[in-house]
From TrEMBL, chains A, B:
Keyword GTP-binding: no
Source organism of this protein record: Camellia sinensis var. sinensis
UniProt xrefs under InterPro entries: Alliinase_C (IPR006948), Alliinase_N_sf (IPR037029), Ethylene_sulfur-biosynth (IPR050478), PyrdxlP-dep_Trfase (IPR015424), PyrdxlP-dep_Trfase_major (IPR015421), PyrdxlP-dep_Trfase_small (IPR015422)
Example GO biological process: amino acid metabolic process
The keyword Glycoprotein is assigned to this record: no
Protein name: Alliinase C-terminal domain-containing protein
Chain segments annotated as transmembrane: 12-29
Family to which the UniProt record says this protein belongs: Belongs to the alliinase family.
Needed co-factor(s): pyridoxal 5'-phosphate
PANTHER family: BIFUNCTIONAL ASPARTATE AMINOTRANSFERASE AND GLUTAMATE/ASPARTATE-PREPHENATE AMINOTRANSFERASE-RELATED (PTHR43795), TRYPTOPHAN AMINOTRANSFERASE-RELATED PROTEIN 2 (PTHR43795:SF22)
Domain Alliinase C-terminal: 95-454
Domain of life: Eukaryota
GO MF annotation, one: carbon-sulfur lyase activity
Pfam families cross-referenced by the UniProt entry: Alliinase_C
């Protein structure tokens, strides 16, 4: 082992302390001192006493070193943007946190330079077909390999015994799954349910074409029909970040697991998921929403075949350009966290994203505490097999509740020029809103700053 | 004007003659002499007597010179592939011409080298959004500009007064149009019709989700309901290449014009189309089927808005990577045929593709004549405003009829290991099949060679 990379426990703790001090100074404008919280690195070290302490030191050292570097960049940016922000915020600029547009990862990919640049010649990938011998004939082998490798490295899903179906985002795969799981010419459409609060697009995507195959049937907790149904299990859940399991648990139930957020920057990876039908997407794992690529892991061959048929009829396959780009991105993420032969100059993607999410959650909780008008859910700490650390989930969305007399939280925040998505879209009361945690740094800072100053309704 | 590029009429006619002789020699293996046909260049010269003769000489000279160069490449390839072919054909290799996979353009794009190479960094185009101020918020401005410019140069569609909606191929836009044009919660689904023979995917795309909004109602010629309907007008038509107009022409009719093949390599551009809703796609215009990009030109703002909504619900927008690639390709096609500032080293794309289609149609007609078991439709010659030439349509698909006692042409050809798509898929009798004219050179040669030798049933 390279001795230069092995720091003593004392060094790590000093750096960790420096980081926490940096965070306190950095977030000083919120107007409240941070409660002394043990950083993930501290926890990580505790957990890693059960592991090879020397190896874990390298990991934690690297994390801290990278964070220090990131902090430097951010502080510079922040200095500039603070001045800019003060002017802008004086004018009451609208902050849009309605959508989950994952632009916060942009700066990581900028740091990666040419490593993830995709180059495609005009004559390449012209055909509709990727591999006609395969069930999913439009799936690029390179993309499939990158998916399998990354799941293995992260340990969040079992790919063995599953067919991979690529889709134009997991949105298309969701619809493909409904098509595949519902028999044609049934006497009535199949009921589709999910426990409230559920992803606001589920009812819209299910019902917009008034399909005879399936129909949205609302909150899974209230489902009482004694007929076949599909239950959508989103874990971690969008919008509230909770870890979920099926709630109906009746005969004739078919489960679709939406695991868009089951990645180690958002939640501890407790086990490799091995469900019948699992959905993933690059938009939330790596932040490439504009690329429109998702994938399904499907046990049943006939279901995978029908999902492929849906995509054939809906869009005649999936863009090769995007699959190649997604493959390159997933390979880079894999390389950055692969202990075998990883590029030492590259910061592990999940370290970067984990630390940024952790920082943002701290920042938001401080703002909420300062304001006293809102509350946020608490999450239990759990051990993450991927990072070897215990931590609380730090979801991609914050599920904010307006306390006291504020009944319509979305309208209330809109009055403060903060756009969010209200509870009624998610099947619950309007005291809740969903807030994207994935915005660009400047907007997120502006948001927490403004939120912390809202003192009365 | 560069004098080196101006050849006399005598030179052009000599080259044209040489080309025709070349074609006869090239297609000698078909076993039949070609009937003496006036080449497009001859016709072109006649037409251009009404134009600036000197300028037209440059065009025609360039075409011939390029064809000569192309011929050289093809002859070399052909020599190699003939030997290969004889072995392969001896073994009775299956030739799949069922799909319209436009791989024939691959060699053109290879010749273009780096001019159409797209390079995208990992941090670019991460967001879902392209321009939130625009009706179609996921439309890349660069792609929109390329579309407008190319339509202007080719003169095949009016873009002024139309909104551009980008889609994951025109297949998705077709479904978006149905969604946009059918009122929700109607007492019964809207009828969707098209004159037979119609594109085989229309019924499937319309009915696969058993939508309550719309329903396939078959051949437009047989439509008799006195209720609102949507008529799909495909011109040039897939599968038979005919030029089309609406046939129902009743009140309460809404037209969708599928103009995927209204490009000058397939048909004379007689006028710039100016319909309410027109669909186009890169897969058939430039051959980039794997990129999955199409566009709609839509007059009515509300229809454009609802189409955008469909794409939002179906796939949350359209891949940015593919839009950028498509923009680059369309720009290159535009550059290659833009009289202002075009790159002299670049062969105009529509010259290349026109000449290749012309050659293939001659080759196919010779094979059909040799066999005597089949027939092909004839097309009237028309003047093309784009090329300044008169020519017969040379469609992307051949609509082949089995003559005599052969009732099921698809099965008959399958017996000869030629896969095609039978008439019943297009709403007509099985004596017809659709054959892709867009295959790679080797497969197309193998096909015409084999077809010409089929002498009896």
């Amino acid at each position: 082992m390279d001795k230069r990379r092995v720091l003593s426990l004392r060094h790590v703790l000093m750096l960790s302390l420096a980081l926490n001090v940096g965070l306190i100074l950095r977030l000083g404008y919120v107007g409240e001192n941070w409660r002394a919280e043990q950083s993930v690195h501290g926890l990580c070290l505790e957990e890693k006493q059960y592991r090879n302490i020397e190896a874990s030191m390298v990991d934690c050292d690297q994390k801290v070193a990278h964070v220090s570097k990131t902090k430097l960049v951010e502080t510079t940016t922040w200095s500039t943007s603070t001045a800019h922000k003060e002017v802008e915020d004086g004018g009451g600029r609208v902050i849009n946190l309605d959508h989950g547009d994952p632009t916060m990862y942009e700066s990581f990919w900028q740091q990666m330079g040419d490593r993830t640049t995709v180059v495609i010649s005009g004559w390449q990938y012209i055909s509709y077909f990727s591999d006609v011998t395969k069930l999913c004939w439009f799936l690029e082998p390179e993309f499939a390999r990158a998916v399998i490798r990354l799941h293995k490295l992260v340990g969040n899903a079992i790919t063995e015994g599953h067919h991979i179906v690529v889709g134009t985002g997991s949105t298309q795969l969701f619809q493909a799954a409904l098509y595949a799981l519902c028999p044609p010419n049934a006497s009535e459409p199949m009921s589709v349910v999910s426990a409230a609060p559920f992803y606001s697009s589920y009812p819209l995507m299910t019902d917009f074409l008034e399909s005879g195959l399936y129909k949205w049937a609302g909150d899974a907790h209230k489902f009482s029909k004694n007929r076949p149904y599909i239950e959508l299990v989103t874990s971690p859940n969008n919008p509230d970040g909770s870890t979920r399991q099926a709630v109906v648990n009746r005969n004739q139930g078919i489960l679709v697991h939406d695991l868009a957020y089951y990645w180690p920057q958002y939640t501890p990876i407790s086990f490799p998921a091995d469900h019948d039908l699992m959905l993933f997407t690059v938009s939330k794992s790596t932040g490439h929403a504009g690329t429109r690529i998702g994938w399904a892991l499907v046990k049943d061959q006939e279901v995978a075949r029908k999902m492929t048929k849906f995509i054939e009829l809906n869009t005649i396959g999936v863009s090769k350009d995007s699959q190649l780009r997604a493959a390159k991105i997933l390979q880079a993420v894999g390389d950055s966290c692969d202990p075998v032969g990883s590029d030492e100059e590259v910061q592990p993607f999940f370290d970067y994203s984990y630390i940024l999410m952790e920082k943002r959650w701290k920042q938001l909780r401080a703002a909420v505490k300062n304001s006293r008008l809102f509350s946020l859910p608490d999450f239990p700490t759990a051990f993450c097999n991927f990072s070897g650390c215990s931590f609380e989930p730090q979801p991609a969305f914050a599920w904010l509740k307006c306390e006291g007399e504020i009944e319509d939280c979305e309208s209330f925040l809109r009055g403060h020029k903060i756009l969010t998505r209200g509870g009624k879209h998610f099947g619950v009361c309007p005291k809740y809103v969903r807030i994207s945690m994935l915005e660009r740094e400047k907007n997120f800072d502006l948001f927490t700053q403004r939120l912390s100053t809202i003192q009365s309704w």
